[in-house]
């Protein structure tokens, strides 16, 4: 199968630092200087001579020869695996189960809270959690964790305190719509998938208020439809119900991971209010600019994906190496995902995206393509500093970025992260779910909306 | 001591349904028909002939003879106990510890997140949690709960996952400023007190955005000072850090209780957007109106106090009867507290309150004094329906309420709840902390701002 071959070739050229010890295959690991440079931490304390920037630039020239590119080109003509098909039985009932978690005695609170569950979202986060749950089911277990895992799965729909004490009325029938009997996904992992979507949706509700967004998934945004007041409340309600569902997993480590995501999302959104750490009026390009952007991107996008991957492995009772590998997969995939998102904002039309194109510049945001362009085009500095607010700023910045190699560099960096994601789980035993995770990384680069 | 006598006399006239089994004193319990009526659930499925309204009216005539009134009048001239003094060592460092929980690498996020910790708030919620922790320390323990309790107290400052995975940077020194060595309050209970204040403050931040409030504690509101955007983000950040701190208590039941508070607060705030369940344009007075108001009040005010009292007893490893008693104390105190708050909005001037008086009517809210007045003054219906929006509505409603017995009825109902709070903990062994809790109930009725 195409992807298996592709994935293996990525691994063989890799340093393997991030490999899980749950390896079944024996791999020839060839350490390469290039890979070492890239493997070091890309943000927090990035040093001048061993930096995110250097790593990003260095990968740009190597695109044609690597596995992900081959997979994208589909050179051998074999059909690719569909990750969604692998967990279709679970995904089919996802939205229904999420809506059940959001029931209340108030029809208009219901409407606002469930609004963003109506349009068919991509559900990328739950999909990844479910695939990771299946893929790690085959990995070695940490014996001491088994008990808490079993406990977590047994009681996720049962409150710990009496219901009359909790006073959190939910008229929805608590029994999940359907539990496929032949699956290796635990009820707690399925609930985790639902929780990730709740947290993500809560952040969309609040972000749309903060950004004064007018549309989302081809429909009016919640703040436009219900007003800021209801959108803030609905977001809080989703966070509240997500926290309650999380508590009922009865797994302190998992609760801490997902609770931290909430703080991370805020810090990321906060960082995004500025384009540079010091928010100068006339900033000069520096490597710290990219570091700041990547840290923001981790917090705002990769934190939820990485921590829910980690939590999925923990709930399955996986050993420490598998837990770490799951985290690294999610972190790198999340970074790749956002880089592609930021690239598409420059390369695709509004019609293709299903949302306004060039929206980032309109919002005043300097994302990866612009940051790469800025290095060779210092005239972008003042525009970044004033957040593209002057008339014509956004159009001019867009033009300069498209003239530069910013798009290409962004794509190369995204590809590098996607490779790292695949590399992280290279030691997992062969399975369709593992192939699905690899395909998720490949699709992240291929997607055009 | 005055309060001990007062408390005992309240109990002797009570039904004792809510008494903790951790009773040390042997009490003569005299069931009274009046008390039975009041003891039944005041909201959710209230029946016509056994209703909140009937109970509220029935207590109005009995004010002069009961214990709380005696305590307020201070007839024997003895000094009352100061609840704050009993946990002064803990309270002294509360704000400092809360600010430590809110550290981040971003000065302007820090400023917004810590803004409401600057002005000296009353810190009612942490004070109650600390008093409850001390009072329940003397109660019988639930043996099977001991282990999780010890675990909770040992590690509250230690993350469960590695810090580099969590990526939730907090530059504050993690060690608490000071831990009084001679206290019977556990570190986990102290942290719980801090968490209650974080959740309360987060709800203030979001409520002020929703209500377009302009001032808070004699200073500009956070939304006015930093803008809606930052106020929403700061509130979310507080919720995130509160959830992380909560997870580190490593006590699933406590996590569920406090997570549920977040959902409760939203539901309460949502209910407050309407004055009646069906939000009619020209509503008629009915008992359901009061039921709706009391349910809203539980969710918005009493939920946090009651559930944190319960959590405090759980963290201390108390037995089931003590845990239930702690909850009932908090629930009844919370209801009394909000009723008095709603009464003061009619009876005190802006100068006395330190915030705009009559603010509730300006916000369109029909609170207890108005609901009681409305029963005998049907002309208030249309004003309630249009949320006092027409010019002169608020002034006219205020005048009608002051002419009615609405204030008196509200005070009587608050007093009834305060008595129930005292009754709930009547079985606790004698202690200064228990006296402090009783005094908190008495002070709730005496306070004038």
TrEMBL record, chains A, B:
It comes from the Eukaryota. GO terms for cellular component: transferase complex. Keywords: Isoprene biosynthesis, Magnesium, Metal-binding, Transferase. PROSITE patterns: POLYPRENYL_SYNTHASE_1, POLYPRENYL_SYNTHASE_2. InterPro entries: Isoprenoid_synthase_dom_sf, Polyprenyl_synt, Polyprenyl_synt_CS. GO terms for molecular function: metal ion binding; prenyltransferase activity. Its cofactor is Mg(2+). One of its GO terms (biological process) is isoprenoid biosynthetic process. Belongs to the FPP/GGPP synthase family. This is Isoprenoid synthase domain-containing protein. It comes from Neurospora hispaniola.
């Amino acid at each position: 199968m195409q992807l298996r071959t592709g994935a293996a070739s990525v691994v063989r050229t890799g340093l393997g630092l991030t490999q899980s010890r749950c390896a079944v295959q024996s791999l020839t690991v060839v350490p390469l200087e290039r890979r070492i440079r890239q493997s070091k931490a890309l943000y927090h304390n990035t040093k001048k001579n061993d930096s995110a920037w250097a790593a990003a630039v260095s990968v740009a020239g190597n695109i044609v020869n690597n596995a992900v590119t081959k997979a994208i080109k589909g050179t051998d003509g074999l059909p690719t695996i569909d990750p969604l098909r692998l967990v279709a039985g679970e995904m089919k009932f996802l939205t229904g189960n999420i809506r059940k978690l959001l029931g209340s005695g108030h029809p208009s609170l219901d409407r606002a809270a469930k609004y963003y569950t109506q349009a068919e979202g991509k559900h990328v986060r739950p999909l990844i959690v479910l695939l990771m749950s299946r893929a790690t089911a085959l990995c070695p277990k940490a014996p001491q964790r088994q008990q808490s895992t079993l406990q977590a799965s047994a009681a996720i729909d049962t409150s710990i305190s009496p219901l009359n004490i909790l006073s959190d009325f939910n008229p929805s029938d608590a029994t999940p719509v359907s539990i496929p009997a032949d699956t290796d996904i635990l009820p707690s992992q399925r609930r985790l998938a639902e929780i990730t979507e709740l947290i993500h949706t809560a952040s969309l509700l609040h972000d749309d208020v903060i950004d004064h967004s007018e549309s989302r998934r081809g429909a009016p945004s919640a703040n436009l439809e219900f007003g800021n007041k209801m959108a803030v409340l609905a977001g809080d309600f989703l966070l509240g119900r997500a926290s309650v569902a999380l508590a009922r997993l009865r797994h302190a480590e998992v609760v801490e991971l997902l609770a931290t995501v909430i703080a991370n999302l805020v810090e990321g959104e906060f960082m995004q209010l500025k384009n540079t750490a010091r928010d100068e009026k006339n900033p000069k390009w520096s490597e710290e600019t990219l570091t700041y952007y990547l840290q923001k991107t981790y917090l705002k996008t990769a934190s939820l994906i990485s921590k829910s991957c980690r939590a999925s492995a923990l709930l399955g009772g996986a050993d420490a190496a598998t837990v770490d590998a799951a985290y690294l997969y999610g972190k790198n995939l999340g970074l790749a995902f956002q880089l592609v998102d930021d690239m598409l904002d420059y390369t695709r039309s509004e019609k293709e995206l299903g949302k306004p194109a060039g929206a980032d510049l309109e919002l005043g945001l300097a994302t990866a393509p612009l940051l790469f362009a800025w290095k060779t085009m210092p005239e972008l500095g003042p525009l970044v500093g004033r957040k593209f607010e002057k008339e014509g700023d956004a159009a001019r910045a867009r033009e300069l970025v498209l003239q530069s190699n910013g798009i290409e560099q962004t794509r190369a960096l995204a590809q590098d992260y996607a490779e790292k994601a695949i590399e992280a789980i290279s030691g997992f035993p062969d399975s369709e779910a593992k192939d699905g995770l690899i395909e998720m990384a490949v699709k992240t680069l291929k997607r055009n909306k």
